[in-house]
DNA sequence: ACGCACATGTAATCAGTTACATGATTCT
DNA sequence: AGAATCATGTAACTGATTACATGTGCGT
C-alpha cells in the first residue's frame, strides 16, 4: 500500500532540495515549468508527501492560517538528500524517459553532485539509439508509405537530430567553461 | 468494464488501416517505430483488440498453425474506418500530447482525410505556447538558479524551438507541393 | 543446455486521475 | 453574482504494467 512510484516521490523530493514548500506549491511550480516534468494532480502529490514524511525524508512545519486550512511546509532532511543522491547515482543507466532526464539535469550540477556532463553523455547515447531506430523504421517502411507516415517519421527524426545537436553543443561549452568536471 | 482508453484503441485501429495484422505484430511495429507511439504491453493490446472486435470495428481471421498458437489476423472494417475518421476529426483541438499528434500525422494524409496542414498548424500553436511558458519559467527562476535548473530549461527551450522550426519548414514545403489542401 | 522469438491470453497489482468534501477571499 | 485562487485531503475509479500460464522451434 505504498503511495506513488519511487520515481514520482523523488521528483517531489527533488523540488524540495531548492527550497521548502507546500504540496500546493509543488503543483504550481510544476505547472510553471511548462509541464516539463509533468503536471500531477493533488491526488498524487499529497499521498507522496505523506509517504516521504513517513520515511523521514522530509519534515513538516504546520503554518496555521486564521481562515484558510493551515499550510504544511515540507523540508527535505539529510536522509532525504542522501536518498536523492543515491537515486540520481544509480538511476537511468540509459534513460529513454525525458522527464526523468530533466529531473536529473536539475539535480546534478546543483547541490547533489556534479555529474552533469555524465548525464548529458548518457542522454546523447540514448537519443542516438532512438535516432537510428527511426532511420531503420524509415527504411523498413519501404512499400508505398503514405505521406502521413513519412512526415511522422521525419518529425521524430528532426526532433532527435535537434536534441543531439544541442547536447553536443552544450557538452562542448561545458568542457570549456569548467574542465574540472567530476564529483566533489 | 471497457478495455483500454478510446485513445489507445484508436492507436491500434490506426495501425490496422495500413495493413491487417495480429496483436503480436502491432507490438513489434510499435517497437520498430522507436517508441514514437509508445511501447504498450500485451496486457493492453489484446484486450483492446477484443473490444474493437466486439464493437465491430475490426474482424478476425484465425490462421491456425500446426505447432504454435493460431495467429489472429485483425482487419479494420468500414465501421472501423468511419470511427477513426471521426476520432481524427474531433480529436485534439490543442494537442499537447506528442504521441496523439504523431498518430494523427500518420492517419491524415493517408486514407483518412487530408487535414495534414491543419494538424501541423495546431501543433505549431501548442508548441509555441509551451515555448513561451518555458520562457516565463526561466524568467521567474530569477534568484540564484542552479546550473542544473538553467540547463534543464534551456534544454526544453531548445527542443521546442527545433519543433517550431521544423513545423514551419514543413508547412512551407507542403504549401508549395500541394496547394490544393483541404478535405476531399 | 539455455534463452529467445513466436503467439495468445488472464489475473493481480500498481500508479495515477477524477470527483468529491470543506471553506474563506479576491477578481471580473 | 459567479468564478478563480488558495489549501488540504480521501475514495472511487481507470488504464496500464507485471507476472503468470502454455507450448514449439531455432540459434549458440
Quick summary:
Chain A is mostly helical and about 180 residues long.
Report on this structure.
2 copies of one chain form a homodimer. Chain A has 184 residues and is mainly α. The first copy, chain A, folds into 2 domains: 84 residues, Arc Repressor Mutant, subunit A; 84 residues. Helix content of chain A is 63%, strand content 7%. Chain A contains 7 helices and 2 strands, in the order H-H-H-E-E-H-H-H-H. Chain A has a two-stranded antiparallel ribbon with strand order 1-2. In chain A, a hairpin with a 7-residue loop joins strand 1 and strand 2. In chain A, helix 1 packs across helix 4 and helix 6 packs antiparallel against helix 7. The longest helix of chain A is centred in the C-terminal third of the chain and has 31 residues. Chain A binds a DNA duplex (28 and 28 nucleotides) through helix 3.
Q: Count the helices of chain A. How many?
A: 7
Fourth CATH level, the homologous superfamily of the largest domain in chain A: Winged helix-like DNA-binding domain superfamily/Winged helix DNA-binding domain
Q: Segments of chain A where pLDDT lies below 50 for 5+ residues?
A: none
Instruction: Return the CATH topology of the largest domain in chain A.
Output: Arc Repressor Mutant, subunit A
Largest beta-sheet details of chain A: 2 strands, antiparallel
Structural class of chain A: mainly alpha
CATH architecture field of the largest domain in chain A: Orthogonal Bundle
Number of strands of chain A: 2
User: Overall mean pLDDT score of chain A?
Assistant: 88
Largest interface, Cβ cutoff 8 Å: A-B, 39 and 39 residues
The percentage helix of chain A is: 55-70%
Give helix and strand order of chain A, one letter per element, not per position: HHHEEHHHH
Largest beta sheet: strand ordering of chain A: 1-2
Amino acid at each position: 500500500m505504498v503511495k506513488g512510484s519511487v520515481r514520482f516521490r523523488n521528483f517531489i523530493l527533488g523540488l524540495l532540495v531548492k527550497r521548502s514548500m507546500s504540496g500546493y506549491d509543488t503543483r504550481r511550480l510544476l505547472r510553471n515549468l511548462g509541464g516539463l516534468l509533468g503536471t500531477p494532480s493533488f491526488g498524487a502529490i499529497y499521498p507522496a508527501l505523506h509517504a516521504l514524511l513517513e520515511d523521514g525524508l522530509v519534515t513538516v512545519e504546520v503554518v496555521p492560517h486564521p481562515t484558510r486550512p493551515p499550510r504544511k511546509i515540507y523540508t527535505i532532511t539529510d536522509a532525504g538528500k542522501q536518498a536523492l543522491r543515491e537515486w540520481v547515482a544509480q538511476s537511468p543507466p540509459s534513460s529513454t524517459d525525458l522527464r526523468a532526464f530533466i529531473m536529473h539535469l536539475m539535480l546534478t550540477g546543483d547541490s547533489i553532485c556534479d555529474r552533469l556532463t555524465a548525464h548529458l553523455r548518457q542522454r546523447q547515447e540514448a537519443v542516438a539509439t532512438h535516432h537510428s531506430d527511426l532511420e531503420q523504421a524509415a527504411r523498413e517502411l519501404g512499400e508505398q508509405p503514405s505521406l502521413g507516415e513519412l512526415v511522422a517519421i521525419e518529425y521524430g527524426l528532426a526532433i532527435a537530430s535537434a536534441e543531439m545537436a544541442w547536447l553536443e553543443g552544450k557538452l562542448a561549452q561545458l568542457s570549456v567553461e569548467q574542465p574540472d568536471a567530476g564529483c566533489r
